Predict the structure of Aminotransferase class I/II-fold pyridoxal phosphate-dependent enzyme.
Amino acid sequence: MLSGGDYIIDLRSDTLTKPTKEMRKAMFEAEVGDDGREDNLGRGEDPTVNRLEDIAAEVSGKKAALFCNSGAMANLIALLTHCTRGDNVLLGETSHINKSEKAPFMDSFGGLIPRFFVTDPFGTPEINSIKQFIGDDEIKLLCLENTNNFMGGTCMSKEQTKAICHVAHEHAIPVHLDGARIFNASVYYDIPVKKLVEPVDSLMLSLSKGLGAPVGALLCGEKEFISRARKVRKLLGGSMRQSGVVAASGISAIQQEADRLKDDHDHAYRLANMIMNNDKIDIRIDSVQTNMIVVDVSPSGQSAETFESGLLKRGLKVKSISDRHVRMTTYREITRDNMIRAANIINSYCDSL
């Protein structure tokens, strides 16, 4: 809280979303078992986890799913299941897997080798770049991201995904999708998740971003792939016991919160429109597609870190993501009034420079 009594508005990330009362009730009442012990079908013994995995498989249109501690773990499991040490993985240089998660490409850990395709201004891979890499290098896996975190929540369409996957599949290269915010993309295009991800071989979807579950992500794919992934999860220390307690919140998140994400998108677009005409910052309004806004602060003459610090003193938390860019993210707890106040803080701060 600021000295004047106003609360700080926190737009750093949608990971700040809190579980609903319905989620907390579901967690309290969850039927549980030992998810770390496999039954005769190769699945864990926690009935609530199994139900969540079945729901995720249905939503994604895949044959099976695996409950994981986090999106980063689910992505790591996917890459280590698809690949072996020394394999080349083709992905975006600014992708979350490469820029933030990193473990798959550490020599002391995954030992995979990253290769970076060229992207358009929205972070979507250029097909010609993918074709060139596939022709020149021995690529074992192609990784995509939808929505694109560091590009500001931009989306990749069903048609774009299909065309890219077609190129990879022509060369028998599987495609993994980091779908941490795939529900946001689904809402943006107004099509079911399963239609949007149909061409990919595996995907991760997160429960703990805008959906608001306190923890967890699902890795989805074919049954044989998920069976192998389950073994990798155990090797990484990711097996849990009575994890139905947290899985119950994930069920509630998928079933009750996905449609609500449109409110977050509307708030982000509203905020972007209220500040975009300020000549001390630059915003690509066509990139504000979901619940994120990336702001180029270089016209202000300040670094992103300095700009972030200046806004904090006035009651607004944002996140610097490069030397010249800050990111703002909306989520359930951020209201329409918060957006108006945030815009006033940004505009007044810029006017003071």
Q: What stands out?
A: Residues 80 and 348 are 48 Å apart (CA to CA). The two ends are 24 Å apart (CA to CA).
